[in-house]
Design goal:
Layout: E1 6-18, H1 29-45, H2 49-52, E2 56-68, E3 72-76, H3 83-91, E4 98-103, E5 107-110, H4 123-133, H5 138-152, H6 167-180, E6 185-188, H7 197-212, E7 216-220, H8 224-230, E8 233-238, E9 241-247, H9 248-260, E10 266-268, E11 277-285, E12 294-296, E13 301-309, E14 317-324, E15 329-334, E16 349-357, E17 365-374, E18 380-385, E19 389-392
Parallel strand pairs: 3-7, 3-8, 5-6, 6-7, 12-19
Antiparallel strand pairs: 1-2, 1-4, 8-9, 10-11, 11-13, 13-16, 14-15, 14-17, 17-18, 17-19
C-alpha cells in the first residue's frame, strides 16, 4: 500500500477511563498541577494499578486501521461501543492511553455541540477562530465567509455571542464552518441529529460534495440509511473493539445482528445528582401492563420512564425518539403533544411517566426508544437509550399478492370508491 495515500493510520489505539471520576467544570493551573503530580506519584508507587484495578475500564482497546485519502468511512455501533471516543482520539481532543494515530492532513471536526467554539465570542468571531485553529489564513476564511453564513442561516445573529444560540443554530454554524473551511479530513459525529430533516438533508448533500472533491470523511451516526448513502466502507465497533471493517452494507448487516442480541424489557441507570433531573429506568409494557420486550404488530406499546428531579424545575419536558435497529428514525414525540405547552412545577423527588403507542402501526422489526429530559431550544439535562424490543407482524398475508409488507409502518388506511362510469357511456 502506498503510504502517501494513507491519511489516518491508527495502531493499537486504546483509551482507559477511571470509573466514577468527575471532572470539574473549571480548573485552575494549580489544580491541574496538583492533580498531575498526585497521578504521577500514584503511578510510580503502583505502576500497573491502572491496568488491573477495577476502578478503571477500557472504552477502546487495540483499535487498528488505515484510511486512504478520499475514502468515506462510517463508524457505527451501539451506544457505549466507543464511536465518539475514537473520533476524539483521532481529532486530538483526547489523548490515547495506548497506541497512536498518525494524521496526514488538515482536520475539520464536528463532534459535540460547541466543541471548538468560544461561548463568549460571536458567530463571526468563531468562524475566524475555527479557521485559524485548523491553520487557514485570513484571506482563505474571507473567501469562504459568505458561503458559511448562508449555509448556516444565521445572518441575523452573526454578531451575537454563540452562548445565546439554540442548539440548532449552534450545529448549523459548527457544520458550516467544519465543511466549508476546506479540511482534508472531515470528522463528523452524530450531532446532526439535533437539526431538522431539511438541514440533515442539506448536510448530507454538502458532505457528498466534499467526497467528490477527493477529501476524506469519517462519519459517526446511528442513521444507517445516511451512512449507506454517504459511505463505502464501514467500521463496526462493539464493546470498544473493531468487530468488522469492510463494505458498508456488510457492516450495517452485522450492526443489526448485534442490536438484536440487546433485547430486554427494562434498562436501569444510575441517578446523576449533578444534573437537574436524570433518568433511572426505561421499561416497555404491553396492554396488560406487564413488562416485555416482545409485541405483536397489533398490540399497543407503552414506554415507562422513571426519573429523578434533583432540584426544583419549571417547564421541563420529556422527549421520545423511536428508532428502528437499522437506524431509521421512525418518529419523535414529547409530553406536550396533548396541547399542554407548559408542565407543572416539578419538586425534587422520584417520578414515573408513561407514553403509549397504539397498536397496528409498527411493522415487524427491532426498535428502541431514546428519551431526553430537558427544555425546548436545546437545553438537555439527560438522555438515555432503552434496550431493543421486537415487533412481530401477526397479519395473515396468505391471500395477498404482495405477501409481507416492507417499511416501518403498518397503517390501516381508509379507502373509498369515489367514482364509477361504465364503458358504454364513454363512447
Amino acid at each position: 500500500m502506498n503510504n502517501k495515500s494513507i491519511v489516518i493510520d491508527a495502531k493499537n489505539l486504546g483509551k482507559q477511563y477511571r470509573i466514577g471520576a468527575q471532572r470539574a467544570k473549571y480548573k485552575s493551573l494549580r489544580d491541574e498541577i496538583t492533580r498531575g503530580a498526585a497521578s504521577l506519584a500514584s503511578r510510580l508507587r503502583h505502576p500497573r494499578a491502572n491496568r488491573n484495578s477495577q476502578n478503571y475500564f477500557w472504552a477502546l482497546r487495540d483499535i487498528s486501521f488505515e484510511i486512504l485519502r478520499g475514502e468515506t468511512v462510517g463508524v457505527i455501533g451501539r451506544n457505549g461501543s466507543g464511536k465518539s471516543t475514537l473520533l476524539k482520539l483521532i481529532s486530538g481532543i483526547t489523548y490515547p492511553s495506548a497506541g497512536y494515530a498518525t494524521i496526514r492532513g488538515r482536520v475539520g471536526s464536528l463532534l459535540e455541540v460547541g466543541t471548538g467554539f468560544h461561548p463568549e465570542l460571536t458567530g463571526r468571531e468563531n468562524i475566524y477562530l475555527n479557521g485559524a485553529i485548523i491553520g487557514m489564513k485570513k484571506v482563505e476564511i474571507d473567501r469562504k465567509f459568505d458561503d458559511i453564513v448562508s449555509f448556516a442561516e444565521i445572518s441575523r445573529f452573526l454578531d451575537t455571542p454563540v452562548k445565546h444560540y439554540s442548539s440548532g443554530m449552534y450545529v448549523r454554524l459548527a457544520f458550516a464552518v467544519a465543511a466549508h473551511l476546506e479540511p482534508e479530513i472531515l470528522l463528523v459525529d452524530e450531532v446532526l441529529a439535533v437539526g431538522d430533516a431539511a438541514f440533515q438533508k442539506k448536510c448530507l448533500g454538502k458532505m457528498e460534495g466534499v467526497v467528490q472533491e477527493g477529501r476524506t470523511i469519517l462519519f459517526v451516526s446511528h442513521n444507517m440509511s445516511a451512512v449507506k448513502q454517504l459511505c463505502t466502507r464501514g467500521i463496526l465497533l462493539n464493546s470498544g473493539t473493531v468487530a468488522y471493517d469492510g463494505s458498508i452494507d456488510e457492516a450495517v448487516e452485522q450492526y443489526v445482528t448485534i442490536a438484536q442480541q440487546d433485547v430486554a424489557s427494562e434498562t436501569v441507570f444510575e441517578a446523576d445528582p449533578s444534573q437537574p433531573m436524570s433518568i433511572t429506568r426505561l421499561s416497555t409494557r404491553n396492554e396488560q401492563g406487564d413488562k416485555t420486550a416482545y409485541f405483536s404488530s397489533k398490540e399497543s406499546i407503552t414506554v415507562e420512564i422513571e426519573y429523578r428531579v434533583h432540584e426544583p424545575l419549571r417547564d421541563d419536558h420529556i422527549f421520545i425518539i423511536l428508532d428502528r435497529a437499522d437506524g431509521l428514525l421512525v418518529l419523535k414525540t414529547s409530553d406536550d403533544d396533548n396541547g399542554r405547552e407548559t408542565r407543572m412545577d416539578l419538586a425534587t423527588g422520584r417520578y414515573i411517566s408513561r407514553a403509549t403507542f397504539p397498536g397496528g402501526i409498527l411493522n415487524e422489526g427491532y426498535y428502541r426508544f431514546r428519551v431526553v429530559l430537558g427544555k425546548r431550544k436545546g437545553v438537555k439535562h439527560d438522555e438515555k437509550t432503552s434496550a431493543y424490543f421486537e415487533v412481530e407482524d401477526t397479519n395473515d398475508y396468505t391471500r395477498s399478492v404482495f405477501g409481507k409488507r416492507n417499511g416501518a409502518l403498518l397503517l390501516p388506511l381508509r379507502w373509498d370508491d369515489c367514482f364509477y362510469e361504465p364503458f358504454d357511456e364513454l363512447t
